[in-house]
Amino acid sequence: MKSLATSLAVAAAFLSSFVLAQDGTPTIVQGGTNPYTCDPTKCIAPKCMCASQTPPGGIKPADAPQFVTITFDDSVQPELLQTAYDLLNVQNPNGCKAKGSWYVSMMYTDFSLVQSWFAQGNEVADHTFTHVGTPSAQEIQAAADMLKAYAGVPHGMLKGFRAPFLNYTADTLKEIAAQGFLYDTSATAVVDDCYWPYTLDNGLANDCWTGICNPGTVNLPGVWEVPMYAVLDNASIPQLMDVYLAGTPADVTTWSQTNFDRHYNGNRQPFGIYVHPTHLTNYAGLPDATALKSGVVSFIQSLASKPDVWFVTNDQLLQWMQNPVPASQLASQSYMQCSKPVTPKEICNGLENLNYNSTVVTGDLINACNFNTSNFATCFNCPGSAPSLQTPVPASGVANGTAGYRTPLPDNCNPLWWDPVAGQCLCTTSSCAYQDTSVPKQQNSTNGTTSGSASPSTSGTAASSAAPGPVAATALTMAAALLTAFIL
Ligand SMILES: *[C@@H]1O[C@H](CO)[C@@H](O)[C@H](O)[C@H]1NC(C)=O
Ligand SMILES: *[C@@H]1O[C@H](CO)[C@@H](O)[C@H](O)[C@H]1NC(C)=O
Ligand SMILES: *[C@@H]1O[C@H](CO)[C@@H](O)[C@H](O)[C@H]1NC(C)=O
Ligand SMILES: *[C@@H]1O[C@H](CO)[C@@H](O)[C@H](O)[C@H]1NC(C)=O
Ligand SMILES: *[C@@H]1O[C@H](CO)[C@@H](O)[C@H](O)[C@H]1NC(C)=O
Ligand SMILES: *[C@@H]1O[C@H](CO)[C@@H](O)[C@H](O)[C@H]1NC(C)=O
Ligand SMILES: *[C@@H]1O[C@H](CO)[C@@H](O)[C@H](O)[C@H]1NC(C)=O
Ligand SMILES: [Zn+2]
Fold first, then answer.
1. From the CA of 254, which ligand is nearest?
2. Among the three residues 399, 416, 436, which one is the final residue of a domain in this structure?
3. What is the pLDDT of residues 168-223, one digit of tens each?
4. CA distance linking residue 276 with residue 279, whole number of Å
């Protein structure tokens, strides 16, 4: 059994990749020339969309929904997930709960919580395995493979990507296109380049000061950019992520409101609230985050009280972009519904009741997988060894055909209807049917990750008894939680 100190030391080794302030705002340069051009008579919706400040489909700004996207970054842990739910505790005009998007990095993430978040209709997206800037293909793919194997998120439902530290290049965008993602959301929009989401057929139209908008740099037909919308603080300095760190809650609310009004009373471009939930979560020994969080919660509640304001995932936003309707018709769109599957028995699909105490997640149906920086619970098989960048989905610790084996999600079952214990898809009607036709994210452009992680072979033989016991797991997971706090 490893001591807590050892665990911390091991975890600290990983810290170096987190230490750079991923919070706050990256360098943002306003103005300058924008070489982007796009001919709307040649770029035809829904496959192609020019960058534009005005709503798509000729919808008048006053008739457009005011979308608000609340996004969360990095690992998913019990307290962080609770913070996210506290922020999303408002309703959309059609009575459904607000939805959010989570850009998930793998280390310290509990996959049972990812599955639970996803099962509530929220979005799960890719934020790499180890959380590095200018990520390799392998970093992006490893995360996608783990999210499928341990959280049951099929590649076809993993639509989005955000670069850690928002540090991306043209190659990053090319790679996410090659791996079949629908969109990137790493670029920054301020005022002059405050575009609705657009496709990269004609290149990027944001962050042009880096040279990335120069003709020929990026041309990725059908791949969307969802710009991150910066807000100007009271000194006109653009703030992007964790804006609540830039002033007192009262001041931040004031200038956030001014920026929201510019969108709402203007061209109704989406408004973003970009959160690292660690900053809004209380940890023993760290400054109390209660006031910060209440400031954000009150701001969100004030937005929710206005007509035509919808809290959506970036995935939902893009469904609307591809088929825009006036706000008056949004309530009836299929992607805005909030039904839950009624399965004939309780299955491990993310909707069962989980208990979590401190950072340990338990449930009747979930497995606990105990590795040093990879402690997590899952509805699926625990890996036989700790996942790594090279081998994000090691062979199962339990062999097919032996007790406790969980059958991986197949490509032809909606994950909400998949019973991994029985190895059975409980969906029997066309309304719940699903076929994953995504471009496989296992691509030849990547180096050495296990391919076909979705269907681990029957040869998983590693003894599950090698995993540390629950006490060690508790200490280790707590170490991970502390670490998260230190990262700030
Ligand atoms: C982006 O990430 C790369 C690789 O991690 C790093 O070398 C570079 O300094 C980063 N750039 C910025 C602006 O953070
Ligand atoms: C593949 O690995 C080689 C060397 O190991 C490295 O130079 C290259 O950048 C990697 N390619 C990707 C897409 O990760
Ligand atoms: C912005 O507000 C802060 C108080 O939060 C104040 O100290 C500062 O002087 C203000 N700056 C400007 C440019 O108004
Ligand atoms: C949960 O934590 C509380 C406070 O630490 C403790 O009193 C309680 O016994 C714990 N419950 C379980 C089931 O471990
Ligand atoms: C953590 O896991 C890695 C990968 O399995 C392993 O190499 C390392 O020895 C482990 N460290 C501890 C302290 O268990
Ligand atoms: C598990 O074993 C059964 C029986 O041999 C086989 O039909 C099934 O395809 C295997 N499942 C996987 C995921 O390999
Ligand atoms: C993978 O290889 C095939 C054929 O060798 C090629 O057509 C395809 O473009 C490659 N994909 C990537 C992402 O490199
Ligand atoms: Zn991040």
1. 3
2. 436
3. 999 999 999 999 999 999 999 999 999 999 999 999 999 999 999 999 999 999 99
4. 6
Question: pLDDT tens, 118-142?
Answer: 999 999 999 999 999 999 999 999 9
In a shared domain, residues 162 and 240: yes
Give me the pLDDT at residue 27, please. 60
Task: Compute the distance from residue 300 Cα to the ligand 7 centre, in Å.
Answer: 45
**CA–centroid distance, residue 148 to ligand 2 (Å):** 23
Residue 472 lies in a domain: no
Range of the domain at 242: 4-338
- Closest residue to atom 7 of ligand 5, CA basis: 386
Decide whether any atom of ligand 2 lies within 6 Å of the 389 Cβ: no
Q: For residues 234-242, give the mean pLDDT.
A: 94
For the record, the structure tokens of 88 come out as: 């999303």
To test the ligand 3 pocket, which listed residue (234, 237, 255) has its Cβ within 8 A of the most ligand atoms?
234
In the structure, ligand 8 is a single-atom ion and the residues with CB under 5 Å from it are 22, 73-74, 164
Assess whether 231 and 156 both reside in one domain.
yes
In tens, the pLDDT along 33-79 reads: 789 999 999 999 999 999 999 999 999 999 999 999 999 999 999 99
Based on the fold, state whether residues 141 and 219 are members of the same structural domain. yes
Residue type present at position 439: V
**CB-ligand 5 contact for 372 (6 Å cutoff):** yes
Cα–Cα dist 278/81, whole Å: 10
**Of the residues 311, 338, 365, which one is the last residue of a structural domain?**
338
Residue spans of alpha helices (H) in 230-370: 249-264, 290-304, 314-322
Ligand with smallest separation from the Cα of 141: 2
State the DSSP string of 300-346: HHHHHTSTTEEE--HHHHHHHHHS---GGGGGGSGGG-------SS-
* Tokens describing residue 100: 């959010």
Q: Are residues 236 and 347 in the same domain?
A: no
Give how far Cα 258 sits from Cα of 230, 251, 263, Å. 12, 11, 9
Note whether 334 and 256 are same-domain residues.
yes
